[in-house]
Structures are given as structure tokens and as C-alpha cells.
Amino acid sequence: MADINQMHKTSPRAQKSLYLRKQDLRRGIELMFFAYRDFTGEADDILSRLGLGRAHHRVIYFVGRQPNMTVSDLLSILKITKQSLSRVLSHLVAEGYIHQEQGARDKRQRLLSLTEKGLVLEEKLTDVQCKRFASAFSACGGDAVAGFQDVLANLINEDERADLRKRYPDLFE
Amino acid sequence: MADINQMHKTSPRAQKSLYLRKQDLRRGIELMFFAYRDFTGEADDILSRLGLGRAHHRVIYFVGRQPNMTVSDLLSILKITKQSLSRVLSHLVAEGYIHQEQGARDKRQRLLSLTEKGLVLEEKLTDVQCKRFASAFSACGGDAVAGFQDVLANLINEDERADLRKRYPDLFE
DNA sequence: TATTATTGGTCAACATGGCTGACATAAATC
DNA sequence: GATTTATGTCAGCCATGTTGACCAATAATA
């Protein structure tokens, strides 16, 4: 929670905490823009050489994280239309990155998993992004990492945060 | 920097800091994805009702932040091709959000600024994003905000970070 | 002054990845 | 048996990125 000792260090008329000034909020906006672009940049480069895009990456990432998930699961994580997903997913299946298997309980379901080829690519992509985080985290220290996670979690819509908490209990510690 | 006291709380074989474990790095990846999506979502909704997209938003935002900037300046911030920018910029000029003025020193330059209409939209868009940040920041406190900023800054490519430091000295405190 | 570089723009074509709408099929469920 | 669910497909539209070619005005420089 806000530390009361950090307040009132500006002029008497400035009632807000230091980090709630307009310029600090704008800094948040800007840092998100620049950081997100670079965070995705390296992976985008690898993907484009393979004729794939960021949409393919998301599918590979989340299927890798949760093997044997259904298409429905993936749709509710990605929040795109099934037509959009279908285009990307079909491509990944055709190219041999993703394996589909009929559900045992519900035979309509296609359970998705990475093939060996998909796993190799997933590891490569996750690795470059993890390295970037490892470098940033090391440079900032554990307290900063905790703050980073806390703020990002609170930027997520409340209802979605609740969904995510159920789906990925470890996402918010 | 890394707090040595946070280490070695897991099994003897785990040598890494707690926040450098694979699962923590993956959490970073995932939080960035979900947070960025929701961070841009509300603004996207407002824009789409006006027949505009996120690309228009970026132009409006950065021109609002730095009035009378040149097209070159904008290109080097956005890092897109001038053809891509041209399409979006022409549209914004035609719709009366952006004003172009011939440069005094260099008459080739088009100095960009927001019109009254552009300013109104910029404030509306910045406001919804600032509110989200204000809410997240308040929920987390000042130390978390500092950590958030620190990590994001370190996710940015080093050379770009140097450029940004020159362009926007207040971006990194 | 003549040449070159910079700033900004245009046109055309293409790719990615969102979207909507309409429709089909198999399987589960009521 | 009727309905809902899970999934897929086709067709087309839109936003926004890309490349390549080319042009004009102006600034900087040899």
C-alpha cells in the first residue's frame, strides 16, 4: 500500500503521492510501449525467418505451457475469434509444430500439444524472452521484480485477473 | 541489486535467485501479454468508434507529448516506415486531429501539433490509460511502482534506452 | 556553383492478423 | 428428439505493418 511518508514532498498544493502525478502515469504508458516492443522484437525476428508471426508464437507458447489444452481453452486465453485462431492453428498443424488429438471424454474436442519440432521452437522463443527478463531482473533486484509483477497484475482487468487466477494459480504467486 | 538473502531457499541444487527461476521469467512473459492487452483495450474501444486504430493513437500521443516535432522525430520514436506513418498521419490531418506547419529553420520539415480536436481526443485517451495506471499504482504502492519502472526500463534495448534518455530525459527519472 | 544529402511525400503491391457473417458437422446434453 | 456445444470452413473486410520505385523541395557541402 501507499507509503504515507512519500507524500507531500512537492508543493503544498500537490496532494497526490509522488507516483500518482500525471508525469508518472504517462511514464507508465511510455515504458509499456517501448518495453513491449523490444520484449517481442527478438522473437518476432526468429519467427519471421520461419514464415510465422506473433500470433503463431502465442499459440505455441500457451500450448507449450499447458499441453493437451482444448481449442476453447486457447480461445478464452487469447481472446480472439475462432476464425482468427483457426487460420493460425491450421498453419501450425500443417507445418508440423502442433499436434491435435481427439478428446477422450468429449470426442469433439481437439487436444493440442507441441510436436518435437514445436517444442524446439517454443524453447528457442521462450529462451530469448527469458534471457531478456533474466537480464532485466538481475539488473533491478528482487524487490523491483516483485513490484513489477504486482503492478502488471493490477493492470489486468479485474474479471480477467480472476479467470487467470483459476486457470494459472501460480501466475500471481 | 540481487539480495543475497533471497537465495538458497529452494533445494540445494537451485543456485539461482528466486526471481530468476524459469517460472518467474515465464511469469514475466505472461504478465506482459495480459497486462499490455488490457492496458490498450479501453483506448482501442474509444478509437474504433471514431474509425481510428492504435497506430493513430501512437501518433496522437507522441505529438501531444512533444508539440512541433518533425515527421523524422516521430519516425524514430515509432520505428515504422514512413509509408506506414504517412497513411496514418495523412488520415489524422484530413480528419482535423493534427496540424502540420512548415518548419522555419528547415522549410522541408512539417512540424506536427495537435489541433483542438486532437487535444480533446488525446486527453480522453490518455485519461483512461492514466486512470488504469493510477489504480494499479495505488493498489501496489510506491516501492512497487519504482520496481515496475526499473524493470520495464531494463527490458528496453540498450541502444534505444540511450536514445530515449536523450530524447526524454525524464523517462528514466 | 554544382553536386549530394536530407526531409517528406506518393503510388503500388503484398503480408499478417484482427474482424463479421454464414454455414456445416459431430457429439453431448436436456 | 431437440437443443446446445465444440470445432471447423469459406468468403470478405479492415488496420497496419512491409518493400520498392520514384519525386520534389531544400539544405549542406565539395
Task: Write up what this structure looks like.
The structure is a homodimer of 173-residue chains. With 173 residues, chain A is mainly α. Chain A has a domain at 21-140: Arc Repressor Mutant, subunit A (Orthogonal Bundle). Helices cover 64% and strands 6% of the residues of chain A. Chain A contains seven helices and two strands; from the N terminus they run ααααββααα. The first copy, chain A, has a two-stranded antiparallel ribbon with strand order 1-2. At the A-B interface, helix 1, helix 2, helix 5 and helix 6 of A face helix 1, helix 2, helix 5 and helix 6 of B. Chain A binds a DNA duplex (30 and 30 nucleotides) through helix 4.
Gist of the model:
With 173 residues, chain A is mainly alpha-helical. In chain A, 64% of the residues lie in helices and 6% in strands. The first copy, chain A, contains seven helices and two strands.
Look at the helices and sheets of chain A and give the structural class.
mainly alpha
Q: How many strands in all of chain A? A: 2
- Could you give me the name of the CATH homologous superfamily of the domain at 21-140 in chain A? Winged helix-like DNA-binding domain superfamily/Winged helix DNA-binding domain
- Please mark out the parts of chain A with pLDDT under 50 across 5 or more consecutive residues, or reply none: 2-10
**Spatial order of the strands forming the largest sheet of chain A:** 1-2
Overall CATH class of the domain at 21-140 in chain A: Mainly Alpha
Order of helices and strands of chain A: HHHHEEHHH
Give the name of the CATH architecture of the domain at 21-140 in chain A.
Orthogonal Bundle
